[in-house]
Amino acid sequence: MSETEPGAPTALPPATPRVRSLSVLPAIYRLLLATQVTLTRLLALGALGLTAMVVGWAIGQSDPADPVATAARFVNAFGLSLTVPVTALVFASAALGDLTDDRTLVYLWLRPVRRATVVVAAFAAAVTVTVPLVVVPLVVAAALAGGGDEVVRGTALAATVGTVAYAGIFTALGLRVRRALVWGLLYVFIWEGFVARGGDNAARLAVRSVTATILGAASGVDLRLAVLSTRTAYVAPFVVALVALAYASWRLDRQDVD
Q: Residue 256's CB: how many other CB atoms inside 10 A?
């Protein structure tokens, strides 16, 4: 198959699996970042952030009796439970999923580059675009809601750490299944939205418990699903992301790509 066929990426320098993988990583990263970032996605997901800021402003104007608790619960319920996972899902599942669906992943797959390099580049691209889209509006929303420094700091930490875990999981999901967006939404709304509320054991299998624990620890507010220790909440997302990326690398190395 010729590398000059229409649709084939041409900006990647030649590489060997063991020597040049790191040198080709930036080129793959830029390529995958460009495929993820579309105007439609930016507008749709930017609207979630804008909604968070408007509601945060409305909460602040209502002069709640306990502004810290009110702001923390709003951020947890809307920002960390909806904005963060949905935004990460859209971009991370598309990182390799879009290439699989339009049958252009083969052009990366045929290059003599470690499969892990492709997967890490996809993950990094998803995190790059997701973090500013969720952290900035949620931090502004927390401040407008009157949460104070504790809630603002907890929001920034929880949203960033949560993005790492979600991006790892959904990058692997986009490679593993067709219609990854649908399966991801089922996880977010069914498992995390309903099943995880059924008990602490189920909650521990939800990324939402990580973000709730971090925000709760920073703000001093008792939040639903905040069932982990603070140390676990900071370590677990990175472990989950590493395991998901290792699986995605293994999967890409063994699956047929056409």
A: 6
229 token code pair: 């220790």
pLDDT digits (tens, 9 = 90+) for 31-88: 888 888 889 999 999 999 999 999 999 999 998 889 999 999 999 999 999 999 999 9
**Looking at the 3D structure of the chain, how many domains does it have?**
1
Establish if 11 belongs to a structural domain: no
Angle at 248 between CA 76 and CA 17, to 5 degrees: 135
Q: Is 4 among the domain residues?
A: no
pLDDT, average across residues 153-176: 95
Contact partners, residue 36, CB within 8 Å, separation at least 6: 91, 94, 95, 98, 125, 126, 129
Give domain status of residue 45, yes or no. Answer: yes
Residue 77 contacts by C-beta under 8 Å, 6 or more apart in sequence? none
pLDDT, average across residues 104-125: 80
Residue 84 lies in a domain: yes
